[in-house]
Automatic annotation (TrEMBL):
<protein>
    <recommendedName>
        <fullName>ferredoxin--NADP(+) reductase</fullName>
        <ecNumber>1.18.1.2</ecNumber>
    </recommendedName>
</protein>
<dbReference type="Pfam" id="PF07992">
    <property type="entry name" value="Pyr_redox_2"/>
</dbReference>
<feature type="domain" description="FAD/NAD(P)-binding">
    <location>
        <begin position="10"/>
        <end position="183"/>
    </location>
</feature>
<keyword id="KW-0560">Oxidoreductase</keyword>
<dbReference type="InterPro" id="IPR023753">
    <property type="entry name" value="FAD/NAD-binding_dom"/>
</dbReference>
<dbReference type="InterPro" id="IPR055275">
    <property type="entry name" value="Ferredox_Rdtase"/>
</dbReference>
<keyword id="KW-0274">FAD</keyword>
<dbReference type="InterPro" id="IPR036188">
    <property type="entry name" value="FAD/NAD-bd_sf"/>
</dbReference>
<comment type="similarity">
    <text>Belongs to the ferredoxin--NADP reductase type 1 family.</text>
</comment>
<keyword id="KW-0521">NADP</keyword>
<keyword id="KW-0285">Flavoprotein</keyword>
<dbReference type="InterPro" id="IPR021163">
    <property type="entry name" value="Ferredox_Rdtase_adrenod"/>
</dbReference>
Length: 465
């Protein structure tokens, strides 16, 4: 076996979201007989990935996750280099020259496809794109066409509920969050009265969590509307509700809402529909040709196993916008193979594979780009642990970087004119955003903890200032 190296193992991690930070943290804590030096890259000037740009801002648990990630990064033993786009600013060949191993934790940021007629109509949106907008993602337009009074959200996962809640919630109730001013103004002007959420299967098969469900009831001046015909339970559904505490909780909550009178005369309504599958997004006529005017759904029925089958009965809903929230999908990573069906880098337990299925020495994957966009953020820790275990097992074959000095990659970025940001820069941006919140509070509005900076150039300027 190769003896321990005389210099630290140089590791590059591409993606500074939870998967990347957890991977770095676990390696620093792992039992090993060699030192490590870790650089954590991100294409955005700020860290945290999904936490900053993929989770609804009114989730209270976000703060806890951010604090945990902040604590890891603030130790000083992991170097953050933001504003660096892999594949453009740095290539795989560049990284191989400067690092002994590379972990890709680029996540999944685009919407899974929905193959129904009308999906390309004006007013048909990807849920992931809308999430990026209300989270102040720097690469999406500042404005969003919030002109519909009646809206459909297709999907029964946490993202679908996030999208529905953000669409139906009154903008003033979001001022306590970090939403940017352009998002507040857009939501404030929205004429929406009804948001319909559609799930293909029954209440016992939903993919959201009890916390997500309960948060719907916290929206002020928003009634929750359910329909008795959607509450069918076959034998498999009843058994699942009896043996799974999470399912039991959600079915109980939904059933209680159904029995209780939820009609308070609120100005907005959030409708939860089950056992319905999208068939077609309907276009308008005349001046509204090419625009969403409705959604055709097929009634489904449980088949005894918890799965569903079509009934041939169709229902048309008049809506002027449709949001697809049926899941995320990964994107190809330059220089690596890609499984289009799964949206992942082909890998074996985190070891990146070549076209023949053979592990490529020194290349690894972690997070959603490794296993697909499934599971909660907490599941990412176990996933990262598996990848790190493979790397430690492979350690004798990793020592190959020709130019491993920590300053070398900095010199390369500066020679190319890349305005990279650092952890110290993030602390400046963090302080600036908190200051914007304090200033807004001082002007007499609702108390705000922070206001998120949106333009990439402003984020970079503040971080490097």
């Amino acid at each position: 076996m190769t003896s321990a190296p005389t210099r630290p193992l140089r590791l590059a991690i591409i993606g500074a979201g939870p998967a990347g930070v957890y991977t770095a943290d676990l390696l620093t804590k792992a039992e090993r007989d060699f030192e490590v030096s870790i650089d954590l890259f991100d294409r955005y000037p700020a860290p945290y990935g999904l936490i900053r740009y993929g989770v609804a801002p009114d989730h209270p648990r976000i703060k806890g996750i951010v604090k945990a990630l902040h604590k890891v990064m603030d130790r000083g033993d992991i170097r953050f280099l933001g504003g660096v786009d892999f594949g453009t600013d740095l290539t795989l060949e560049d990284l191989r020259e400067h690092y002994d191993a590379i972990v890709f934790s680029t996540g999944a940021v685009r919407d899974a496809d929905l193959s129904v007629p009308g999906v390309d109509l004006e007013g048909s949106f990807g849920g992931a794109d809308f999430v990026s907008w209300y989270d102040g993602h720097p690469d999406v337009p500042r404005q969003w066409p919030l002109t519909a009074r009646e809206v459909a959200v297709i999907g029964n996962g946490n993202v679908a509920l996030d999208v529905a809640r953000m669409l139906s919630k009154h903008a003033d109730d979001l001022l306590v969050t970090e939403i940017p001013e352009n998002v507040y103004e857009g939501l404030k002007a929205s004429p929406v009265t009804d948001v319909h959420v559609f799930g293909r299967r029954g209440p016992a098969q939903v993919k959201f969590t009890p916390l997500e469900l309960r948060e719907l009831a916290h929206s002020k001046d928003v009634d929750i509307v359910l329909y008795p015909e959607d509450f069918e339970f076959d034998e498999a559904s009843e058994q699942l509700a009896a043996t799974n505490n999470q399912v039991k909780t959600m079915v109980g909550t939904l059933t209680n809402w159904l029995v209780e009178d939820q009609d308070s005369g609120a100005s907005r309504r959030l409708h939860l529909h089950f056992l319905q599958q999208p068939v077609e997004i309907l276009a308008g006529e005349g001046d509204e040709a090419g625009q969403v005017a409705g959604l055709r759904m097929e009634r489904m029925e449980l088949d005894g196993t918890g799965n569903v089958k079509g009934t041939g009965e169709y229902v048309d809903y008049p809506v002027q916008a449709v949001y697809r929230a049926i899941g995320y999908h990964g994107s190809p990573v330059p220089g690596l193979g890609y499984d289009e069906l799964k949206g992942v880098i082909p890998n074996d337990a985190g070891r990146v594979l070549d076209a023949s299925g053979t592990p490529i020495p020194g290349l690894y994957a972690s997070g959603w780009i490794k296993r697909g966009p499934v599971g909660l953020i907490g599941h990412t820790k176990g996933d990262a642990l598996e990848t790190i275990g493979c790397m430690l097992e492979d350690q004798p074959d990793l020592w190959s970087a020709a130019n491993p000095e920590e300053q070398a990659v900095i010199d390369l970025l500066e020679s190319r004119g890349i305005e990279y940001t650092t952890w110290e820069g993030w602390l400046k941006l963090d302080e600036h955003e908190l200051g914007l919140g304090a200033a807004a509070t001082g002007s007499g509005t609702v108390q705000r903890e922070r206001v998120k900076v949106v333009p990439r150039e402003d984020m970079t300027r503040i971080s490097r200032g």
